[in-house]
Design goal:
Two copies of one chain form a homodimer. Helices cover 37% and strands 18% of the residues of chain A. Chain A contains five helices and five strands. Chain A has two domains: 7-79, Orthogonal Bundle (Arc Repressor Mutant, subunit A); 93-138, Dna Ligase, domain 1 (2-Layer Sandwich). By secondary structure, chain A is an alpha+beta fold. The first copy, chain A, has a three-stranded mixed sheet, with no helix packed on it. Chain A starts with 6 loop residues before the first helix and ends in an 8-residue tail after the last strand. In chain A, strand 3 (95-100) and strand 4 form a beta hairpin. At the A-B interface, helix 2, helix 3, helix 4, strand 1 and strand 2 of A face helix 2, helix 3, helix 4, strand 1 and strand 2 of B. Strand 1 (77-78) of chain A pairs antiparallel with strand 2 (88-89) of chain B, so a sheet runs across the interface. The structure holds manganese (II) ion (2 copies) and zinc ion (2 copies). Chain A binds a DNA duplex (30 and 30 nucleotides) through helix 2 and helix 4.
Chain lengths: 147, 147
DNA sequence: GAAATAAATGGAATGATTCTAATTTCTGTG
DNA sequence: CACAGAAATTAGAATCATTCCATTTATTTC
């Protein structure tokens, strides 16, 4: 009988959950499983469809719950940052953005041509990008944290 | 009498619009104006509030319409890419993403430590990032475009 | 195995964005 | 200048990903 989830990943999951005091449930295992199965960056809804083939009664809310847990445990990443209203920027030079977790502010971070071209060279042959988005998330300066 | 929108930008707007056969309306001018006024990456709603002080009857739909036009004319950028469902990814190594406009596929693009550290050095003093998101948007390989 | 706690569930609520259909504004031409 | 046609604006409805809530079910602890 072949395990759906390979031993290594099964352990990774178990440990990650235990270390955060979260329970290893059928649902969480299965969600993790389908994400590993096909590395195509599925949406929550895609995942729901796939998981339902194994757990037909799983709800979409649970998919979201499981995903939150897996992200929290750093077992999966979400490709788009926090869903939040789109922001607009008049800076027409190439630049990156810094989102401060503390204040919510968004700063421009200038990007010199040098670095920009290094970043562009990351792309393998056959890929042509017309847009690059680089953003940092963390803590900004003088956050006046009263700590 | 001081013009609300500086001459240079006023011209940029006029030319950009004309070159795409779009009309220079009060609403578009005003939206562009408030975005330039305060470079804080406002949301559509923020912009609506600010523009309403000058055009009290402007609708939110128009704000979105104007923003679409300004983005199309490359006068402003939107900081979050197209609003679309969040995607999830099990790749735990540092990597970038490539979104293909043609097929909608999302690919992982590996990021060596070298490049990663170059990117990190972009941040000015005082900023600490715990997350970096780098994504490319464009056309992927062998897109089988029947052209 | 019962109490206590965490998780799962279905459905309602949210909220950013998009769509629609009606009205208003522009622009080019006569 | 008037007018036809095109483009833009508007209010409100519709979408849709995500979150919230109250209830039920599963897990862990004792
Ligand atoms: Mn989330
Ligand atoms: Mn848009
Ligand atoms: Zn910016
Ligand atoms: Zn990825």
């Amino acid at each position: 009988m072949k395990l759906a989830l390979p031993e290594t990943e099964r352990n990774r999951l178990k440990h990650a959950l235990k270390s955060r005091n979260r329970r290893p449930t059928r649902q969480r295992t299965c969600v993790y499983e389908v994400i590993l199965e096909k590395r195509d960056h599925p949406t929550a809804d895609d995942i729901h469809l796939r998981v339902r083939e194994k757990l037909p009664s799983i709800s979409l809310a649970t998919i979201y719950n499981c995903l939150d847990t897996l992200v929290e445990c750093e077992l999966v990443k979400q490709v788009h940052l926090d869903r939040a209203p789109t922001r607009f920027c008049p800076n027409r030079n190439p630049h990156a953005h810094f989102h401060c977790r503390v204040t919510g502010q968004v700063y421009d971070v200038s990007l010199d041509d040098e670095r920009l071209s290094i970043i562009e060279k990351t792309l393998p042959d056959g890929f042509t990008a017309d847009t690059i988005e680089l953003s940092f998330i963390g803590q900004g300066p003088k956050s006046d944290t009263i700590s």
